[in-house]
Amino acid sequence: MSEATPLLSVQSLGKDYGGHVGCTDVSFDLWPGEVLGIVGESGSGKTTLLNCLSAQHELSRGKVIYDTRVDGPKSIFDMSESERRLLMRTDWGLVRQNPRDGLRLGVSAGANVGERLMAVGARHYGDIRGVASEWLEKVEIDTNRIDDRPTTFSGGMQQRLQIARNLVTNPRLVFMDEPTGGLDVSVQARLLDLLRGLVTRLGLSAIVVTHDLAVARLLAHRLMVMKDGRVVEQGLTDQVLDDPQHAYTQLLVSSILQP
Amino acid sequence: MNQAQTSSQTLEGYNFAYLDEQTKRMIRRAILKAVGVPGYQVPFGSREMPLPYGWGTGGIQVTAGVIGADDTLKVIDQGADDTTNAVSIRRFFARTTGVSTTERTDEASIIQTRHRIPENPLSEGQILVYQVPIPEPLRWLEARETETRKMHALEEYGVMHVKLYEDIARFGRIATSYDYPVLVNDRYMMAPSPIPKFDNPKMDNMPALQLFGAGREKRIYAIPPYTKVESLDFDDHPFEIQTWDESCALCAAEDSYLDEVVMDDQGARMFVCSDTDYCEERRDQGHIGSMGTPQAAE
Fold it and tell me: What CA–CA distances, in Å, run from A128 to A170, B234, B276?
């Protein structure tokens, strides 16, 4: 597709949980190669928004249009379910906050990475294993551990394994929900470094939900600040963080602890 | 309707084949649908049967649904006609239907089986009824029923290969040896019930009708005659069946599935055909294994 088409276009998206508003009036375009950060406090609708974008929740209002490789821009909720699930397995990645939700804990690391390949029809054990060990290397996991189960991995390794598992089909869009949540700072730093490297090297687009402004500053090109289900401010990351306009953003920025 | 002729052997007060006619109609409808969509698990209203779940309640209900007064029934359990489960199910139908029973594979019109497919090839017109404990091949990989149904609907069978991958990674080969997953008619992933993978190739293009009943899980599925049944594998780790260095100690068969029988506590053991009918037939023909005795001497 031409450069002029956004990869993902969101038009006045809203999601209600019964009478309660999850998020509402969210509109934005995500361009190829761009990383969008979504920040806000707990309960501000960040994860709801991410779940809607990644087609895990049905929308209450609005539209999400994705620029598919073959058919061009298409509303993801007008696709058939099989098309949508194929998209989720191949063109998209979803990195969950808790790696145990995103991994298959009963099988080895290699099988975890290879699962998506097998889902799209890879039937050669040696090839699958080769690709798996390549990816383990890319996310800095010792390839000797390819046959170990993720339960024997540390939290940081599990998170990196989850990233490898998602990126193995060369997706164009990756959704990340608090990718560094629950990791200690030095591990966080390495993971962020790795993510930043992968995103630039592979030309990925990503939507990163986080409550950690440091993560947002490191990873995101553009930032959206959410409060009570609405987007209160959006713009370039540095601009939003260095010159916050909205009162809530100002509060958020000033709440960062300085060590 | 296959109304029972009240023969002196059948039990008083029971309908033909134990179940009432409406229940049998319901089961037949499920079977018809199952035959129409090979490999698809059709839900049915499984009934309480006079034996515990796990002993073949599904198979019994399918057999009760298809059996008629002129049928000949054979029941096998682990290949043998003379084990407890086989004997009691055979007697159950003998007493509730009065049909004749047999131990000969080629004489039977309906064969209810647990764990084996007979060694002798089945022919057109025969029905093979399997007792199935867990009908869902994806169950160990995905616990949610809603999700497994969706995976079947959308043909998302990649995870099945994850299981085989894991086998090779851990044991160096595909170590799954029974209930080996198959793809039926290029469409539905199916659990062939806990038969050894030795029997999987027999399911492919079998002239006989194959019916599967899972009583506790309330599912019936089927493979119509002459349907493609493919065992899953990897290109570089093709599907293989079990082989033995020994031959049957009684009938010297080298092409049958062998059971290992421990003889004493000194480590002595023998290998015998698990299909007792096949073994007997061979011995009648004069084949004698290392521990066998000529039939005439008995």
Answer: 14, 10, 43
Three-state secondary structure call for residue B81: coil
Chain-chain contact of B162 with A107 (C-beta, under 8 angstroms):
yes
Q: In Å, how far are A1, B16, B119 from B141, measured between CA atoms?
A: 37, 41, 32
CB B287 within 8 A of CB B249: no
- Would you tell me which residues 143-172 of chain B have a C-beta closer than 8 angstroms to some C-beta of chain A? 150, 154-156, 158-159, 161-163, 165-166, 168-170
Nearest to B181 by CA among B148, B209, B225, B208: B148
How many Å apart are CA B14 and CA B142, to the nearest integer?
41
Name residues whose C-beta falls within 8 Å of residue B91's C-beta, 6 or more positions apart in sequence: none
> For the purposes of burial, counting CB atoms within 10 Å of the CB of A172, is it exposed (0-12), middle (13-18) or buried (19 or more)?
buried
pLDDT tens, residue order, chain B (298 aa): 444 444 456 788 889 999 999 999 999 999 999 999 999 999 999 999 998 998 999 999 999 999 999 999 999 999 999 999 999 999 999 999 999 999 999 999 999 999 999 999 999 999 999 999 999 999 988 889 999 999 999 999 988 999 999 999 999 999 999 999 999 999 999 999 999 999 999 999 999 999 999 999 999 999 999 999 999 999 999 999 999 999 999 999 999 999 999 999 998 999 999 999 999 999 999 999 888 877 654 4
Length of chain A: 259
The alpha carbon of residue A75 is apart from the nearest alpha carbon of chain B, in Å, by 20
ipTM over 0.85: no
Size of interface A-B (CB pairs under 8 A): 57
The alpha carbon of residue A243 is apart from the nearest alpha carbon of chain B, in Å, by: 47
Whole-model pTM? Answer: 0.85
Contacts of A128 in chain B (CB under 8 A): 165
* A125/B235 CB distance under 8 A: yes
Pairing of strands B42-43, B219-223: antiparallel
Q: Say which of B169, B233, B234 has its CB closest to residue A111.
A: B169
Please indicate whether residue B59 is annotated as part of the active site.
no
